[in-house]
Amino acid sequence: TISSTSPANNAAAVQLNSKVTVEFSEAMNPSTINTVTFKVAGPGVTLVTGTVVPVGTSATFTPSSPLVANTLYTVTITSGAMDLAGNAMVTDYVFTFTTGLTTDITKPTVASTINANGVVNVPVNTSVGATFSEAMDPLTISSETFALKQGTNVVPGTVTYSGLNAVFTPTSNLSSNTVYNATITTGAKDRAGNALAANYVWSFTTAAVADVANPTVTLVNPADLAINVPISSAVNATFSEAINPLSISTSSFQVGGVTGTVDYNAITRVATFRPLSNLALNTIYTATVTSDVTDMAGNHLLINKVWSFTTAIAPIVVPVINLRTIEPYGSFGGTAGMTNMGTLTQINGDTGTIATGTASITGFHDTAGDIYTQTPSNIGAVNGKIYSCTNSTTGPTSAGPNAVACTVATQARLDAETAYLALVAMPVGGASPAPGANLAGITLAPGVYVAPGGSFLIEGGDLTLDAQGDANAVWVFQMAQTLTVGGPGAAAPQSIILAGGAQAKNIFWQVGSFATINAGGGGTMQGTIISQAGASFSTAGNVSIVTLNGRALSLGASVTLVNTVINVPAP
Predict the structure, then answer these.
(1) Burial class (CB in 10 A: 0-12, 13-18, 19+), 183
(2) CA gyration radius for the chain?
(3) I want to staple 138 with a disulfide (CB 3.0 to 4.6 A). Which of 58, 245, 337, 373 is the partner?
(4) What is the C-alpha to C-alpha distance for residues 13 and 102, in angstroms, rounded to an integer?
(5) Above 80 in pLDDT, residue 556?
């Protein structure tokens, strides 16, 4: 069966230089994985020319030329695909995606690792994992790009890749009470061919013993015996410890009678089964996580985890926010521009503005070679591309505005405005009591929350968002006026804490005027902020980094960053 796909089924704004990757539930016979059994078709069932390379449990289709903008593509894996024992897929597997307007030049990053940098008492029988910020080209994830060393000695082992996760498995147990260093090199590339900006290195220290404890499933969503479950729901299982992502597949995580894909988030320890189409109304479904699932030391679940739920009698509308072409942007300066102050700012994504003034973008450079009015004290790295309607100081756009880039930026702003209006229109309702203006020190379940006086604050404590095991849970915060995070006083940073499988990509802040995020520096913000009149992060002179896992998008006034790191969430 197919465990997962990249792009995902029904994905929008897929970038034009993307490859297509499918992950099977087991190792396949490579002679049966080719352009006959792995087909990509455009309008009119016109086949896209390209090459197919199978590696282990995955296969990657590389188009001969970039895909066409704003086009629906259909991918088919036929029943001619067979495993190593000669078993064929029961039926053809079909999924679709739609391209956007841009190519992907954003460099991937390592989002997290198993084991974490500097951690001690790691079991000697552990494997080592890394989670990337986006889907990678499996052909570039190998022992050549992912290595483990003890001092200068290379540890023998094997490297496997699935979804967003790579795992290094040592051939034998590691030594006790020993420091090991893991490295992922710039040879690791995403599906568009972008390499890591630099080698990623981390270390850990082993314990004296092996891990013999069995993992468990601690939370499921929908809950066992739940009723009125929306037919658009995915099914989640949260584990007691880090799980080997290679053991999570459509073979080890199933929903009876349903075809879908399975992915695993190593950061939240949540596995998600995503049906390929909506579930049936008023139907009992049984979900199973089998004992084939293992932790990073190879310990299995002792018994299968089985639960059931019943779908709703009538359709339930679940908020879905489609960002379209604005999705790859870490920031957007609307009609006014983008400003950076400091040397520590980094946008792991694209940025842009439709402003035409020559000074509308200051303090930034991108991977295309464009530099916009940088000084020694104001240097901001855009780990993607700057799309604007103005010219750069030096670089390819210095001779004058790039018409194509301006068109891309204009469409991105339109899509941001469409998303903003969709957020405004969402009916209020959440599982938690309606909050007051200050969200500090409370925990909120998923829902749509409106600011009682027009503005939300997070001052005097952190805000926790608890998904309660549902990795697809959505939060929408509606403000007619302002959003202020940090305080009381400019020097007190506040953060958003994610719990129960909550994901930054599913958090949205609709701001009627201006957003001020941690004016004193520091703290971690989560989610996509779409404001009418700009946003500022930190204040000039602060060196404590503000982190935003999400996006800062303005429709009108500019966005100002001071020593800010923005990580665009993976789709």
Answers:
(1) middle
(2) 24
(3) 58
(4) 8
(5) yes
